[in-house]
Specification:
Length: 574
């Protein structure tokens, strides 16, 4: 938060400098974007050895200055002129090694080979999304002593590598919003932009809006802007503090789509500006009679994916009980009519799905909360705890449930017109190919799912067409450090909370791209933790060997839940 406030404060002070000169016709120019025009950067200090040259080259590769000028000064003259690094970055661990390669001598005393070895944490893709990777990093550099006696790199790599700490200092994470017709909500797509110059932050964010969703989210959301839409002028702050966004190419977009486009832009920019925003399309207001906007003026598009603050249940000894008062829910699910193994409540709170043990197998039942639940023709040796798909605004009560059969088949059931719950297919090949699936949670906006696969945390996107549902772009999060995961839930649309069987790292919070991981306070917990549930504006709730515990923040000490009981598995709607 301190970093964001600093960025916003500096942005507000210098934003007026980004104005386009009045003497010329305003057009969109890339002058405030990194990587465009070479700038003067001081030469490195004299007398640096080859290892230091390489280390400083890597450290300065993280500075997204114009034309990679900060890193380019460590190259010889030919390389400076000809080096064209590829888009994107490789992010490596802060601790990496640089050693002379003595096994492959060049035969020239004025040339040296240096090997860099470290651990790869992920890649910043060309679409500015972080993609987690677990791999070794190795790169060889050749250096040559120049006429002035200084060592310089002669064969710089096409792919830039930067340390994790330098990446965090120089790049700013922004949730770019995209619309999900599936839930009627806006979905965050985590992307990274150069933090400096601060005055250009809104322009760089707007570029990502225009580029559309990242590869990991493509197909799971609707891209409201076609390829012809662009900015007519630079995104800039005017003298009265308004941020101007002038679009062109909107054409015959409907009033509904124009309102959604306005919401998408405002939601995406709200993390980098506090200014009111003026939205124009081809010279006139994007939304008729609404030219100036603030985020507070937008309708709450995500109201239907937020669980009611009073909702929350738990399974205890084969029955479903309320977290609010500890009492059993109505119907067979609460009175012992079913031997409940696990359960899930729809986001709207109106329906319940349970996994029931019967005749040596586990079966799915679904129906209205408090009533008899219909037995579905879906069973196996084991079924994972059910999870509900959200419903778009005005779409009625929830009507789709997912589970995993025998750890290797992702299944869903939908509510048919005749009131029966029927099986439907999911192409989950990319996910099941990673291993045994023990837990599955649909995001409450319906665009993604989180899963526990072979004890690791995985996120994938959900792509729907008229006649198919498929899981795409599965990615393991914090693969090196996060192991023995036993449960997961969506704390927000872009953050997960996971529980592990580890005594040293029992509960963690992870952004959906896995770029970092934060541990919750574990002082009051009694490992192993076996369950976790979370939701926006609700307390985080975990189940350990002693019962149920709640905490709101990462550093907060866990407190007993009001109706704690041992062997309970808690769950919020979703």
């Amino acid at each position: 938060m301190r970093r964001l406030l600093t960025l916003l404060g500096v942005f507000l002070l210098v934003a007026g400098c980004a104005n386009i000169p009045l003497e010329s016709q305003p057009v969109a120019v890339p002058g405030d974007k990194p990587g465009q025009t070479p700038v003067d950067v001081p030469e490195p200090a004299d007398g640096l050895d080859s290892l230091t040259v390489i280390r400083q080259f890597i450290r300065n590769s993280a500075t997204p200055g114009t034309a990679n000028a900060d890193a380019r000064v460590y190259l010889d003259d030919d390389a400076r002129r000809n080096w064209k690094p590829s888009p994107g970055l490789t992010i490596i661990d802060d601790t990496f090694g640089t050693v002379y390669d003595t096994g492959s001598p060049t035969g020239n005393p004025d040339e040296q080979l240096v090997n860099v070895r470290g651990f790869k944490l992920g890649n910043l893709s060309p679409d500015s999304a972080f993609i987690p990777v677990k791999a070794e990093y190795s790169q060889q550099f050749k250096l040559r002593k120049q006429q002035n006696g200084q060592w310089r790199i002669v064969d710089p790599p096409q792919e830039l590598a930067v340390t994790d700490a330098d990446f965090a200092r120089n790049y700013f994470r922004v949730p770019i919003s995209f619309y999900s017709p599936d839930s009627g909500a806006f979905v965050p797509d985590l992307r990274y932009v150069a933090a400096k110059p601060q005055a250009g932050l809104p322009g760089r964010v707007m570029d990502l809006v225009l580029q559309g969703p990242s590869e990991g989210l493509k197909g799971a959301v609707k891209d409201l802007l076609n390829d012809q839409v662009t900015t007519e002028t630079n995104v800039r702050s005017t003298d009265d503090g308004t941020l101007d966004v002038a679009l062109t190419g909107i054409g015959g977009a409907s009033q509904v789509d124009r309102a959604l486009i306005a919401a998408q832009i405002i939601l995406s920019l709200q993390t980098v500006t506090l200014s009111r925003i003026r939205l124009l399309a081809d010279g006139t207001a994007l939304v008729p009679e609404h030219e100036y906007w603030r985020a507070s003026e937008l309708p709450n598009y995500n109201v239907d994916i937020a669980p009611d603050s009073e909702k929350g249940l738990m399974t205890v000894n084969g029955r479903v009980r309320s977290l609010a008062d500890g009492q059993p829910v109505g119907g067979p699910a609460g009175n012992g009519g079913y031997k409940v193994i696990s359960a899930a409540q729809s986001v709207d709170g109106k329906r319940l799905a349970v996994v029931e043990e019967r005749d040596g197998r586990q079966w799915l039942r679904v129906g209205d909360l408090g009533r008899e639940l219909a037995s579905v023709d879906l069973f196996g040796g084991s079924l994972s705890r059910p999870t509900w798909r959200p419903v778009a605004r005005g779409g009625g009560v929830s009507g789709e449930v997912w589970t995993v059969v025998d750890h290797n088949t992702v299944a869903r059931v939908t509510l048919a017109a005749d009131g029966r719950w029927v099986k439907a297919g999911v192409d989950a090949t990319l996910l099941t190919g990673l291993g045994q699936i023990t837990e599955l949670r649909l995001s409450r906006d319906g665009s993604r799912l989180a899963a526990v696969v072979n004890g690791q945390l995985v996120v994938a996107s959900i792509v729907r067409t008229a006649d198919s549902v498929a899981l795409r772009a599965p990615r393991k999060l914090q693969e090196r450090d996060l192991k023995d995961v036993v449960d997961v839930d969506w704390a927000t649309q872009d953050h997960l909370i996971a529980a592990t069987s580890s005594s040293t790292l029992p509960v963690v919070k992870v952004p959906l791209d896995g770029q970092r991981m934060d541990a919750f306070n574990s002082s009051n917990l009694t490992p192993p933790v076996h369950g976790v549930t979370a939701a926006p504006s609700k307390q985080n709730l975990v189940a350990d060997a002693g019962g149920l515990w709640v905490a709101s923040e990462l550093g907060e000490v866990w407190r007993p839940q009001a109706h704690t009981v041992t062997d309970a598995d808690p769950f919020y709607p979703g």
